């Protein structure tokens, strides 16, 4: 349990008092998503941010939530560890929902009412290219 918490604290640490790990290492609270290299990594990206895979972040945070949920069952009789497990589950659920919401907002293309305004007809005048209004 404690060894797994080291991994969790590395990416999803909710504590301001933890002297070993920063709070939510990769989380961008303004945009709602996580950055693969963290918020400030000039070495990997000229603007300091890099998004490799939203699904990796979602899977990691969901794994944290599931671990916390299972540990709540395991430590049902130990009030201290039960509360810690509940926090792990809640943080995992919160980060998962934020990451899914951000992925839907920034990375997925969804239909909208404005779609009917886009012409996808192909005309001979533009050599077969798709024409947009």
How would you briefly describe this protein structure?
The chain contains three helices and no strands.
Tell me about this structure.
The structure is a single chain. The protein is an all-alpha fold and 133 residues long. 45% of the residues lie in helices and 0% in strands. The protein contains three helices and no strands. It has helices spanning 2-12, 54-74, 79-106. Helix 2 packs antiparallel against helix 3 (79-106).
How is the topology of this model organized?
Layout: H1 2-12, H2 54-74, H3 79-106
Helix pairs in contact: 2-3
Oligomer: single chain
What number is the mean pLDDT?
79
The profile of the biggest β sheet is: none
Helix content: 40-55%
| First-to-last CA distance | 57 Å
Spatial shape:
globular
- Taken as a percent bin, the fraction of beta residues is under 5%
* Helix-strand makeup class: mainly alpha
Unreliable residue runs? 118-126, 128-133
Search tags:
single chain, 133 residues, mainly alpha, disordered C terminus
